[in-house]
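Ticket opened by: R.M.
Priority: normal
Category: complex prediction / small molecule

The reporter submitted a protein together with PLZ and asked that the result be attached to this ticket for the collaborator who will pick it up next week. Submitted input follows.
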Amino acid sequence: MTLIDETSSLPAGGPALEQVRRVGTPLPGPRSAAILARKADAVASGVAHSMPVSVVAAGGGVVVDADGNSLIDLGSGIAVTSVGNAHPKVAAAIAAQAAQFTHTCFMVSPYESYVDVAEALNRLTPGDFAKKSALFNSGAEAVENAVKIARKYTGRQSVVAFDHGYHGRTNLTMALTAKSMPYKSGFGPFAPETYRVPASYPYRDGLTGAEAAERAITMIEKQIGADNLAAVIIEPIQGEGGFIVPADGFLDAVVDWCRANDVVFIADEVQTGFARTGAMFASEIFGIEPDLITTAKGIAAGLPLAGVTGRAEIMDAAHAGGLGGTYGGNPIACAAALAAIDVFENDGLVERAQQIGALLRDRLAGIQAEDPRIGEVRGHGAMIAAEFVDPATGKPDAALTAAVAAACVKAGVIVLTCGTFGNVIRFLPPLSIGDELLTEGLDIVAAALAAA
Ligand code: PLZ
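Result attached by the on-call engineer:
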């Protein structure tokens, strides 16, 4: 039980939080340790955690735990708090909406903020054509619905996803996700009519974009056939799979093939969306206009909200009542999204993501120049990663990656790993982080690597 006198002395979150790294106890400290012990007793073991802390406040570029430790945030809660945690505009919008009404169910009695979010998504996503949107609760739910819509529109059943792809933890999205552990192992059987083809992974496959696209398209034509295919789904930059940036020409060739064969091209921008990559959407970087785009994460600064946006004629294929859900487009989540979108558009966050990207890239490239255990530094904007390898063989080095990440955690830096081979450290700082804190975080990563 949390004691009231303890809660009242907690720091307020948001940008006013002192922007320092401070580790005054071993992690976890005593208060966090007590809460984590209760977690072990009360919460299902399948719900794991990577930072041994219990959070009480966050904002700017730090996360503060119950023992007063202040950690540098290089993860944004997996690319979610891009505008910054507890951003004052978002917090105020949430409070105001919570005092107004908390829920009616948009399918029962609609309200304006849902329409506002749909209009914003239709306007901000790439493609100069008539668009419509529908709102859901999570990235996985958005992906499920994008596939439903594509199937209804095309009258076809099959869906193609890619090696290294990640699309969620529900049954259909597990089927679309590539990696078995921890996402799929033991949880089958998976949804039928889902197929996987090779992606473009220039560092490991050495193929041009055109060659990688031809490899994928040939497999689709031979093993599925365009006539059976409703949709192709891909993350423009693959997130959980290792921040894999496809070779130039790959995505546009796949889009062209989809268009020529009346296959719906779905860009899963759940992780890449909303300024993260130094563009409002990563599709812009590759010059593609997806038929459907899924969004979540950054859209509402942590409130559960997700969207499917796309060509009006495709979005309208589902019959009335065919799309929805009790909470989809909840009014508090929509209020948070409208405030966050205001910040993305008007507070220069696309530019800030580019600056953060330049800082991350320069520093990591500097470390790589002296240390061949970093095989590649890649990404766009504030979505940058380093892939760790055995320099002698080029093979993925997951043990080194885990050691570097563990040392960062111990020193009070939140870093996330990713990659099919578990050998990638990804940097996803909130766009509200200052350069000093970011640099200090990278100093610690460099020291952790040197010591590993
Ligand atoms: N599509 C591209 O990145 C979520 C999940 C991590 P939800 N990625 C982080 C984990 O271990 O669960 C994600 C994504 C892409 C879909 C999803 C799913 O989004 O909001 O987690 O359902």
